[in-house]
Design goal:
It is a single chain. It contains 4 helices and no strands. 65% of the residues lie in helices and 0% in strands. It has 78 residues and is mainly alpha-helical. The protein starts with 9 loop residues before the first helix and ends in a 6-residue tail after the last helix.
Length: 78
C-alpha cells in the first residue's frame, strides 16, 4: 500500500506553510507595500523583483495580484 503525499506539489506545500506562519502584521505590511508599489522610471526587472517579494507575503490570490500588477507596471508592458 502506498501512502498519498499530503500535498500534490512542493509549491503547494510551501504556500501552505507560508500562510500558516506569516503573521497578520507581516501580511498587512506586504499589502501596504504592494498597493503603493509603482514601476515609474525603474527597470522592469527591479519592479518585478520587488513585486514578487511582497506578493508572496501578501496572501493575495492571483486575480488580485494581476490587477495590482497591471495597474502599476508601465502601460505598454501590461
Amino acid at each position: 500500500m502506498t501512502n498519498k503525499p499530503p500535498f500534490e506539489t512542493w509549491e503547494k506545500m510551501a504556500n501552505e506553510i507560508a500562510q500558516f506562519f506569516i503573521s497578520i502584521e507581516t501580511q498587512t505590511h506586504a499589502i501596504d507595500k504592494l498597493t503603493k508599489l509603482k514601476q515609474g522610471n525603474r527597470l522592469f526587472e527591479d519592479f518585478w523583483s520587488e513585486f514578487v517579494t511582497w506578493k508572496e507575503l501578501s496572501g493575495y490570490n492571483e486575480v488580485a495580484l494581476v490587477g495590482l500588477f497591471k495597474k502599476e507596471v508601465y502601460p505598454a508592458l501590461a
